[in-house]
Task: structure prediction
Amino acid sequence: MRINEAQLKSIIDELTLDKEQLKEVASAMRFDMELALQGRESSMPMLCSYIGMPTGQEKGEFLALDFGGTNLRAELVSLKGDCQYEIVKMVAKPLVTEEYNLINGSASAEKVFDFIADMFAELLEGAENKTYYLGHTFSFPSQQTDIYNARLLVWTKEFAIPGVEGEVVNDLLQAAFDRKGLSNIKVVAVINDTVAELLTAGYQYPDTQIGCIYATGSNNCYMERTADVGRPAAIINMESGSFNKLAPSQWDNKLDEASEKPGRQRLEKMVSGRYMGELLSLTVQHLLNLQEKPEFTAIDMSGIMADTTAVASDAAKVISAKVGALEPGEAAYIRDLTEAIAIRSARIVAACFAGILWHVSGSGKIADQHIAIDGSVYEHMPHIKENVQKALYEILDEEAGAVTPMLLKDGSGLGAAIAAAVASKNI
Ligand code: GLC
Result:
């Protein structure tokens, strides 16, 4: 066997956060949140979204755009009041296929937004004379001045479309609709996907105060009930993926150096689906002393961990598809490493929740509540849900009993429709 056990142990140790370290991360998270809220230097921008929790009485048909994950989605959503809704129709297209790439330097703002406008033409076919208000779930850090105006601060998740950073994204979108003769679509609102998730949760679980995306990217928002200079009481998009008070391993540093934006999104690069596979690739290359770096994805990681047998023969199939034939015993060790990466991710996500809960509850007790989480990692990756829960107990002790993390799917479309309903009331 090529794997040296001592070397494996030392990599896994480097990727392990104990209870005390977790508590420190949670405290540092709260500290950085509060620095940013006071307008002081912080690793997180804590962006005001200019929207609060919904009433459930929002009504009407709205268009929703979901831009920021693996797929673009155009939706027609009907809000019926009394927290009832229906996704009437949806068109979804991947951002990257073998034929085209809409997220790298070869794309352009015009090309991407024209592509989106074409998706809405397909969605509405024949109904182009009716006026529709559209809510835009744009899942990147954006500085807002109101519910419509949001300028993209910086691309994350390895997106690199030229001509969008610094721009008002809704202006780019509206211009594309106008170019395509779809001026009947009025873009009225923009929100982050975490905010969309929290708005959606507010419909069904009104005690929810935190919205989380645990997918390609990783981020949280929460309802900030205290207004401050220049900011109303509103949902705050934390951009917690940019938190930088975690101790990175040498593998995290390697990954960061080779990324689109070195030095940025340090938490996200340790936690999210876009990056975890890369951490596995780097560590396996080292362990097996491979000339070339293999290309594991988060989906491969799930495949490896789904096999819980001692011989790990299914896990071996997933691994050998990337690295060639394995020697006996190697697959089970690589599975241990995969688990260490996944479990660290879940524990960091739980520490973020604890930091937010401490901030929201101040000197009081943590209120009974749900935490709304959406995303492929939380939904599908083995070991994640139970380790989020376990870490919450380690950090919060019995107070964790007040908190129920839950998977709530497809918030982006409904959240965007709710935001459009709120914004179009004032038109
Ligand atoms: C990245 C984005 C953030 C988004 C998250 C989840 O962290 O910067 O805005 O919420 O991914 O999609």
